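As a warm-up, study this chain.
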Amino acid sequence: MAGHKRNILPLPHRHAHGVTPGIKRANLHRLKRIEGQVRGLQQMVQDDRYCPDILVQVAAVREALAALRASLLQNHLEHCLTHALRGGGKQAVAMQAEFMKLIRQP
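Now compare it with the structure written out below.
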C-alpha cells in the first residue's frame, strides 16, 4: 500500500507478552493456509477461471485474514495490553490508544 501511513504510536519494548506456543502455532498454521489460498487465487486468475468462482475464493481469504486478525487482537488484549495497563504510566495510556486505533481499523 504505497503512500499509506500507519498511525500507530511508537512504543518502547515492542514485543509480545505471553504469546503461548499454541497460539503462535495456530496463527502460523492460519498464515500457511492463507498463503495456499492466495496461491490458488493466482492460479485461478492465470487459468482464466470464472470470475464468481475467483470472488468466492477472495471472500474465503478475507474471512481467514479476519480470523487471524481476531486472534491477534484477542491475544494482544489479554496479554500485551493487560501487561501495560498493570504497569500504568505513559506506556499504558499509549498502548490503550494504540489498541483503540487497531480495533477501529477495517
